[in-house]
Amino acid sequence: MASINYYRWYLAILVFVLLVSGACGGGGVGENIDPEPAVGNELPVPSSTPARDAESTPISDRPDNWVYWLSDIDIEAISMAAPPVAVIDYSRDGDGEGAFSSKEIQRLRTAMPEPALVISYLSIGEAEDYRYYWDDGWETGRPTWLDSANPDWAGNFKVRYWDPDWQAIVFGSESAYLDRILAAGFDGVYLDIIDAYEFFAGKGREAAEDEMVEFVTALGGYARERHPGFLIIPQNAPELGLRSDYLSAVDGVGMEGIYFGYESQDERTDPAITEELEEVLSTWTGAGKLVLSVDYAVTPGYVADAFERAADKGFTPTVTDVELEGLPIPRR
Fold first, then answer.
1. pTM
2. Rounded to whole angstroms, how far apart are CA atoms 287 and 294?
3. Do both 175 and 216 map to the same domain?
4. Count of the separate structural domains present in the chain
5. Cβ–Cβ under 8 Å, residues 70 and 89
6. Do 84 and 231 lie in a common domain?
7. Residue-wise DSSP of 188-209
8. What is the pLDDT of residues 237-269, one digit of tens each?
């Protein structure tokens, strides 16, 4: 992609300028850079996790695979598989007690090849009744931001994501969900249920799309102030990337079922849907954004087909079981 050459050119010029300025100033490059002090109540970047520079985050050199594992996560198995990108839950079993420590996240990152991105799943369009923040007394309408249950996923509830009280659960304090992820040293978040905006737009909320874009933008800005280079990767709703404000606010997109599993596992996606998704995702790859494709298939021929077609389009592919309880299905 054109963006790869741009970043290599940019880094070459940057190194040259730094070397020249170091020589002229009589000191090493490191001696001329002071760490930025913490401001206000900002959370510190864990000492075991070097902050990533937003200008040099290596996502323009596309990783060739990734792991997507959310249930009963085995970090040792992921370490042995050594993918360049791993999207996992922040917790072994989803609740606060099983949360991974910063040392565990750093050990996993050390076992992975570059770009070595360990990214945490975070649902912002639904609440989940197994999370640390859940109150057993909650039900639809109580609190007011809690909407109807998801009939396809037990324990998941749509949320009125524009509500300040829900957003305060997601980010903004030491006990908030995103802040826990930051403190654990993850490299980014994989935001789920972005397409909740369609649900509420269908119920007559005209501002639903704008409010989701504003939510993601605010969340990303907050995270990057505390961890420079922190990645924001929403899942699905790739059409929002046609908005320049949204595209500039995120670092990539995850897309399910481009080739297999859009309706059900091991079923080929309607070719018209595949074509539409490939077209809209070309906006993302054209902008140098990371596209993580995940197809749900187990038939060897389907698995190989999904990997090959995704790679041809400049996506970073994985093929896995829809339950997301293990390593990817190997391509043969």
1. 0.83
2. 20
3. yes
4. 2
5. yes
6. yes
7. EEEEE-TTHHHHHHHTT-TTHH
8. 999 999 999 999 999 999 999 999 999 999 999
